[in-house]
Amino acid sequence: MKIDFWIFIIFLLQLQTCSGLEVTVPSNPETGMAGSSVVVPCIYSLDFNQMEPKLLLVRWIFRDKVLLMFSKKDLTSYGRATLNKEAAMNGNVSLLLYGLKVEDEGMYTCSVEYNGELHLKEVQLRVEASPSVEVTMSSTKADDKMNLDCLVKGFYPKDVNVTWYRNGEIVNNGIITSEPRREGNGTYDVNSTLVIISSKIRKDELAECRVEHVSMGTPIKEHFVLTQIGCKRNSFTLVSINPVTIFLVMVLCHGLYWALCNRLKSKSNVVDEESVKPAVEPEADVQKCPRMGEIMVPRLVNGTKAFLQCTISGYCPGNLNVTWLWMKPGTQQLLPISPNDNKTATVEIKREKDKTYTCTACLSINVSVSGENSAQYVCQVEHPSLERPLQKRTGNLHVIGIPVIKVRRETRRKKTYLTAVIEGIFPLNVTIMWSRMKNNKLVDYPETDKQKKSSINLDGTYNVISSIKDKQSRARKSKSFKVTINHESLESPIQQTILREEGVYYLLTENGRNRLP
């Protein structure tokens, strides 16, 4: 009998200390771009209505070191890490790492302890860095050879694919590619050399270095016009080592001139306009000015990758220089794009049937509210036919944040509230309509019966919480409620329907109904 008493006491102590704590993290690795910020998710759940903040302790651990600690509503950070304190009190203790580096890659441990109950969950973080690509020409000891060097810098992870093309066809021979070399910041560099035989260069031939890497959605393509390389070298060869050929060319030109004069004399004295036109230079040497189209800007959604595109056409010769510039939000200064900005510029050149060129210039950007909203981008073009560069601007960019919507039931001071939690929305102007079924009709709640508050997240988006009170929560009669959320980021308003049945609340979905906690 005495043993049963102590078993009962232990059982009561377990009931008292059990908090129903649950911690959830993603099963798949999270990925962040070097130089940017990344969120490492971690969510916990318990009975928030009876939660005591002083009993909560959150720690983030990386390589056996504590990065961050949150206790009694106080945050202590030991590095480039933080979290949202308000969100932490509502179950979201996701870690925000800023100024991401390659060395930040690894396993992170989310430690959540409440009232002595401890849960540990691990999240794998992978870091990626996009490469920059530069193609240059270098001479060799052999008179008839030259090297095109494709230098690929600043990429991570190590695996990269570098492919050479000539006139759209893959080159398999005459390529020397080094092993990737690791730099001090953890990224890699690699150089690939294409050996060119000058005598085998065809007119207006294009060489292309194409780089593929896991950090990029599309390959980087860098082009080089081989005709311009080969012509100068061949001209020096004629002058210096083959004077006999030059003599024969001069004799031939003299003969053609004599024949042309005789033909003109045989014509009538009436000289038409066409007969006195000066000789026209070969079409390849005619300069044609480029035409720039407007910069195409897609829908910019926070947390996604977007591509700005500008088409330049109708120009000749093919040596065009494209530069992307940008104006950060809140500034008036144009700055050149650099790899550290986590933006990647690519160009694709095509020769048209009329022997002019068309260039498609793309800029890949990682869209964020804090980094891109109200920013401006400029595509600048330089060409021998232009006295000054051409420019096209995007105007101020507009970023949207598509919200995640959750519905829950809350009990506060013995009163029941239905709450819609809208996370990650931008801009803040959102319309939330609550309605209830009354006399077989949906009746809107007046504004005075609704509660609404908002908070800003670290990435610049907002969280919005909207609540209504169910004054008849204990009634056994069935009743339905509806919340409608409308925002510019949504293709159509989102509606959620809640059913109260014998005091129990259910969220109605296409697959049935789910009980609200």
UniProtKB/TrEMBL annotation:
The protein's matches in PROSITE patterns, at most eight in alphabetical order, are given as:
IG_LIKE, IG_MHC
One Pfam match, by short name?
C1-set
Gene3D superfamilies linked: Immunoglobulins
Q: Which InterPro entries match?
A: Ig-like_dom, Ig-like_dom_sf, Ig-like_fold, Ig/MHC_CS, Ig_C1-set, Ig_sub, Ig_V-set, Immune_Resp_Modulators
What UniProt keywords are attached to this protein's entry? Immunoglobulin domain, Membrane, Signal, Transmembrane, Transmembrane helix
- Residue span, Ig-like domain: 35-126, 131-227, 290-391
Q: Where is the signal peptide?
A: 1-20
Q: Which domain of life is it from?
A: Eukaryota
- TM region(s), chain numbering: 236-260, 416-434
Q: What protein name applies here? A: Ig-like domain-containing protein
Please give the organism.
Answer: Leptobrachium leishanense
Classification of source organism: Eukaryota, Metazoa, Chordata, Craniata, Vertebrata
